[in-house]
User: Fold these one by one.
Assistant:
Number 1:
Amino acid sequence: MTVNLKVPLKKTILNVPGFRFLTFGAKIKLKNIKNDIVIVELNKNSKTVAVFTKNKFCAAPVLLAKHNLTLNDPQLFVINSGNANAGTGQKGIEDAREINRELGKYFSLDPNLILPFSTGVILQNLPLGRIKDSFKNNLANIKYSSNWIDAAKSIMTTDTVPKAVSKKFNLGKNEITCTGIAKGSGMIHPNMATMLGFIFLDAKISKTLLKDLVKYVVDRSFNLISVDGDTSTNDAFVISTSNLAQNSVINKKDKMYTRLRNNVLEIAKDLAEKIVRDGEGATKFVEIEVRNAKDLNESKIIGKAIANSPLVKTAFFASDPNLGRILSAIGNAPISDLDVSVIDLHLNKNIVVKNGMLSKRYSEDKAIQAMKSKEFKLSIDLKRGKEVATILTTDLSYEYVKINAEYRT
Amino acid sequence: MTVNLKVPLKKTILNVPGFRFLTFGAKIKLKNIKNDIVIVELNKNSKTVAVFTKNKFCAAPVLLAKHNLTLNDPQLFVINSGNANAGTGQKGIEDAREINRELGKYFSLDPNLILPFSTGVILQNLPLGRIKDSFKNNLANIKYSSNWIDAAKSIMTTDTVPKAVSKKFNLGKNEITCTGIAKGSGMIHPNMATMLGFIFLDAKISKTLLKDLVKYVVDRSFNLISVDGDTSTNDAFVISTSNLAQNSVINKKDKMYTRLRNNVLEIAKDLAEKIVRDGEGATKFVEIEVRNAKDLNESKIIGKAIANSPLVKTAFFASDPNLGRILSAIGNAPISDLDVSVIDLHLNKNIVVKNGMLSKRYSEDKAIQAMKSKEFKLSIDLKRGKEVATILTTDLSYEYVKINAEYRT
């Protein structure tokens, strides 16, 4: 099930100068017939910045990728689905290193210039033999692909639709090309889902500002969906630029930087939204806006307290305006000095709660009508500051239980 | 669905000297035909201590009960199901006061000596008219009940089995009688479920030690299940003693106190366990033991991180030993200095994870066999201290979604 989400048209997804890639199958899950490996080659001048999960059981590829990023800008990404190489201890790290060494031979690269990314089942070792065989079959004579949708497909696990977005925009007179792909599976609990997001572009920008860009963008996109970018064992969000565009290097926070940032953010938000729309078992797409908070973090915490409540989510699924569950979720958010007696709640444009209690103008009929739609918006006014954040989430359906109960089988 | 839980036999549930009660129906939910009001009369010398939800959207009856407890020991409880009187603002408080005033007339009591308890739908006003009518019909000529199972039934919402436990024990040569009733509905998210627990006994004990007893008992019973006592809008746990037993007053932490505490804890643990076994949609009963933690709180946090993960719970439902999800849940628990590379995990007596990775002695067949059972135990060894806590929880099934999607209809 998806909520208003389609496979992108091939012609809309652009190749970015300086990046080449190919995909192939390694039967990482033995029964899999789809491609499960993507290799992305980056040009020599490219720069890469990434943010990773904060989960303490973080996966071997995360540890290795983090380490390699401290050395030099990477020249190659290897991304696999089907197996997370997490909970695999020292053996997992050795396996990831072994894959890098092997790839280094085919691409004549120092293995330390390769970043591994894995998602899939936890607590299983990678099938090294099958992976090496797939390298032999596909890398002895490399045929690059030009269809990024294939790459987006190959990194999917329980996703049902490949997620890719492209954009061209100008910095001054110079054209910039930007393409992002992402995958995200689980969606109900922000610290469980496994999410990968990659954005490739060609704009010239200093490493310092690229770091600033990644942080700014992820906080306002992937970190605002209920598949939270910062806590699974394998989550990663990566921006790489080939530096091949003709713009003069962006090295201060000027208009050009802002323009670039806004364009990249747009791509990231679009990808993040697609992850929610393809959320496991999703039948509804719900925006939760938390307004007039003291700070951004407070609005996020409250938005996620609502988005992650199973009782709220099952009410979404049933199109049941059992909106008291939302108040209870707000009351549970760890904001110690919250005054709930001033809070307003709107469902689309209709008022539900005024100053902490049911509004006299509340209409159950209108509420049911709004919630029967595939998409609706909740807006919570905290009346204590000026910040706003909008969390994107879905409902909790029978299908969610089914998908996750049957995932490994 | 329940997991190995039966209606208690009437003869096993004892009347406690000093407490009288009756139950009747007020059609608080219009369609309800079951009794939905319980009134408990406490003798003049009784003492009562209670702990309530920490939810900031806490309900009107919670605010009033807390207030009245600061004045004098209560003489009457009025407990209703069907409506939580939460998210009802000042009107909700006035309604609760009005009910107390009305009851005060029938029982010739100061309304401040009455404690109200409500659970049920949030954001709806109590049907005052129907409640007052029910008082007129049932309190003009009071017929007390002697069957506590009826009381346990009347406070149920989505519970399927009434929960009551009794015990007689001696303090020295003096016999003490103790009876508890409880209700608990949701179960998946500790800060959403609505739980009530009442324990009545006749032991003589000082108010100071009764306060100590409540805290000790709730922390080791209701606060260790995934229906957490401290965060819904209406949760309450209450111990009342009539002081009618013949023991000399317990006023220091001596052997007698310890003996009393252990007996009351046993009742409370039994009630809490019953709430889990009757958890919404439950098909499995799972114990999660977290051993060798630095402190009790740390083991609770980790146990609940596992118990509240939808991905873990759906794997329980599927009898699928996708045990990596447990590691991921541990890695997400907010314990900043946790060393995951030393952690062991057992499923019943079989080792799964040794030092943070899959044990060589792990047997998938044995794991599946264990998880196919209706009850099993996970044991996590943190190897960093000496404390242990055991969280009780269930799986997440289709039925859970169904119950919560259809709750109001």
Number 2:
Amino acid sequence: MSSAGDVGERGIIEIMLRHITPMPGMPIPFWDDVMAISLGDGRAVVLNTDMLVWSTDVPRGMTYRQAARKAVVMNFSDLGAKGVRPTAFLSNLALPRDITVEAVEELARGFEEGAREYGGYVIGGDTNEAADIIISGVAIGVADEGALIKREGGKVGDVLATTGYFGDTAAAFKMLLEGYEAPKELGESILGSVYAPRARVEEGVALAEAGAATSSIDSSDGLARSLYDLSRSSGLGFRITQLPISQNARRFAEHNDLDPGALALYGGEEYELVFTVSPEKLGEARDALRKVGCTLIEIGEATEEKEIIHVEDGVSRPIEKGGWDHFKG
Amino acid sequence: MSSAGDVGERGIIEIMLRHITPMPGMPIPFWDDVMAISLGDGRAVVLNTDMLVWSTDVPRGMTYRQAARKAVVMNFSDLGAKGVRPTAFLSNLALPRDITVEAVEELARGFEEGAREYGGYVIGGDTNEAADIIISGVAIGVADEGALIKREGGKVGDVLATTGYFGDTAAAFKMLLEGYEAPKELGESILGSVYAPRARVEEGVALAEAGAATSSIDSSDGLARSLYDLSRSSGLGFRITQLPISQNARRFAEHNDLDPGALALYGGEEYELVFTVSPEKLGEARDALRKVGCTLIEIGEATEEKEIIHVEDGVSRPIEKGGWDHFKG
């Protein structure tokens, strides 16, 4: 008999979808990164939920406070990617009975820190006992239905862009899980990408307000996987001409004789936005991001052929999917 | 160093509260059963989150489908108690890698069944890997801020009432956890109270629409605990003249030489509403409930003395708090 491990996360979602009645008038497709409920006045409540399981998701060296803050960041990031400002966070917390009060205080500080950093508030939650620490977070925001930037909506000829460079988290996981070493002066900064990630909330809201993006996703499952998700949702392919590899990743790769492109493509838990923009709106998108202190990075274009290709020095190579599946990772 | 087990659920909530900035203009106090965000037009988004942890919350004999349905019921119940109709449910699910696809199908069926039963929809969720099955559910509804029935608001002289009789779940837990036996013809019905509970959503909405209740709570932590929570929130006491003991509980108690009153007071996971009504509105409250097929059960009155007293055959006895604490249970 097949198991969750056999069908993977997507298989489980497909099973769920087969059994449920879709809510009429949902402002965003079921497959997207967030859920939304129409308020009937042009606005929607937008929600996201993401779970952090201590034993599988929290790497060594991460503090309680950092983990709690990260639980907020990963939930806020999905709203940001849709152009929605998260106003509230709630946490459903499972704790072992013997966790210290000090640890609980640190978790509380992390929630507060994460929420306030993006202008949101912790509005409550629930507490339960379990063997492992589990933080099931929910981010909530209200936005105009028409302004939501979906996963679908990209058009052939659109510019493919990101809000930042990739590869730091992949390098960090190499250090934390496989014993790789970073050049001395880079170690802290690389590990910081995992311990203290940042969500691109202001950036997503700026893109939505400018009406400048045709589709968007956050890169929490890795850049390659994000490209596949965007491609599948919009029914197009991508031709990548410039892999957005971070300086840290380049130097880490050189130091360890690794492929820097693979670090950029297959990291995960990076919360940059990956989005498409029509060529006519590129200037506006660039300006919108600049106003919130972010540089738009062009990495390629959307193509009719439904493949994801990296072109370098005149050679075209398909980008493999890779990326993270909770059940197959 | 003190632990979560030492300070209990309430201690943990107090720690959280000390560290967070309250959201301005929240339509319902932090201490209440649900969370709410003002929509700025007189309405509020109302949310509740409750977690079901398989190893601690799911008794033997309960199916996947029943557990998933119950996860919806327990979340919808809190909204119902505030007079809010839940329109959506989302589940954040943690599953062991080796859980069968068939079990996942049954979970999906249970979510759908629970949501549709109350007119709501499953709108999505997230899936993660963990050692235990964990269902972190979220119920969402939209309601007029002014119609929310809070925990606070009861007045001295108000009638104390419930939507049903208590004790079936306590009897069921005696059977499941302590090996007690029920009279043959009652066993299935008693166990059904735990396997297939019902939320009083229509009843809560009816009370809110009639503007007939001054305060309300669901009895998921047991009747006694609910009385203490209402008492604390409104700053008053209760004089109980009629314990709402179910027929099943009476016969189970007789069969096993147990105190039927204790079964009614200290069960938990019963989802009746416990609420207060001003004497002038009692008729309206009764009518409102009758229209949705429910009988209002008067059990006592709100008093100035902040004690919770049971008066029987002319003898007054304080009701002990008891009830369920996830960390002290």
